[in-house]
Amino acid sequence: MNGKSKYEMFHHQSPWISSNRRYCHAIQRGVVYESVSSDVFTNLAFEDWVYNNLDLSTTNLLLLWRNDPCVVIGRHQNPWAECQLRQLWGSNVKLARRRSGGGTVYHDLGNLNCTFFTDRKRYNRKENLELITNALRSTWPGLDVTVSCRDDILLDNFFKVSGSSAKLGRQIAYHHCTLLHSVNTPELKSLLHSKKEGLTNRATQSVESAVKNLSDVEPSVRHSSLVDVIAEKFYSQYQPLYENKVYPVDPSSEVDWPGVLSSREELGSWNWVYGKTPQFSVQRSHTDVSVLVHVHHARILGVVIQALDGWIDTGLIQELTGHLAGTKFWPKDVAEITEAFLGAVIVDADTRQKLHLICKLLLETLS
Ligand SMILES: Nc1ncnc2c1ncn2[C@@H]1O[C@H](COP(=O)(O)OP(=O)(O)OP(=O)(O)O)[C@@H](O)[C@H]1O
């Protein structure tokens, strides 16, 4: 960095400081931004941008954002284990992998996300969560919200309305949390219900909770009112003499946040969303035969097919498993290989039926 601090680099080079006066409040002690985008990948890329580019040694930055329907898994999770992929693929719900750890959550426009960026030394999850619960209670005394020992926000000491995770760097940290005010809870429950049978996994597992929307208890809770009350509490805590202004930001602006679009592309890529899945295995069985698929970086590492001696010619099995090794663990890719194999192989009707069964079991491991 040629001896310059991050902020100096940023100050001199970044157009959003040097020429775009709209964003020149970055060195206040506290500032609230609200993203104008509802694209999960753009919002996650913007979080990344702030994390990598801003010097927040004197500033607390709160970013408020929400997304169109999506399932967001933690950095070290396995989407095959965490959600109903077949249902998700057939819907308009996107799947995203965030940079922070933790479990799987569902977002739609009825879920507000709050990202608290601070200097690493001032990182304090509990303080952030208390800020939210204090803001909620002082505006809607009927909301009995508390922070649990897992850093969830619970309603009536039971229903989860907020989950948290964080990313801690050497200098900067962020803590982000969700806030359910009016999400589609049936969709949340059906997409996240998984516990896939036959799957062996060392990835982080989600902790399922009963959830509820804040608006079920206080119908006047809306996105805009939440933004206002949380921003107000934030300013009263960090910047008491400052006007309670929520600054709209366009996180897709390459001019304001150079590099944000390539980060968005990476976060939306198959290699990130699926490819970062820790190694796992899935098994499917039928009375006569079982199929075990080992998967690494969402590619097939190997397939083990077990059957009674003489049930099928082992040479055929070796040929099929050889074709599959290294293939993407993805329905289209696996289907193409099994179809090509079945189309080319010359065998009697009984063997063909057995091969069809094996290929069917293979495809069942995929969702
Ligand atoms: N938007 C949401 N806000 C709050 N809870 C949610 C949301 N979506 C789903 N949930 C519930 O939270 C559960 C996942 O919680 P889990 O604790 O594993 O992850 P987390 O809250 O992201 O973070 P962490 O693992 O760091 O506590 C889901 O199974 C579901 O019951």
TrEMBL record:
Q: Which GO terms describe its cellular component?
A: mitochondrion
Residues forming the BPL/LPL catalytic domain are 56-242
Q: Which GO terms describe its biological process?
A: protein lipoylation
Q: Which residues form a coiled coil?
A: none
- Matching SUPFAM superfamilies: Class II aaRS and biotin synthetases (SSF55681)
Q: Which domain of life is it from?
A: Eukaryota
| UniProt pathway annotation | Protein modification; protein lipoylation via exogenous pathway; protein N(6)-(lipoyl)lysine from lipoate: step 2/2
InterPro entries with a match to the protein in the record: aa-tRNA-synth_II/BPL/LPL, BPL_LPL_catalytic, LipoylTrfase_LipoateP_Ligase
Entry's Pfam families? LplA-B_cat
Q: Single GO molecular-function term?
A: lipoyltransferase activity
**Similarity field:** Belongs to the LplA family.
- Protein name according to UniProt: BPL/LPL catalytic domain-containing protein
- Its source organism is Patiria miniata
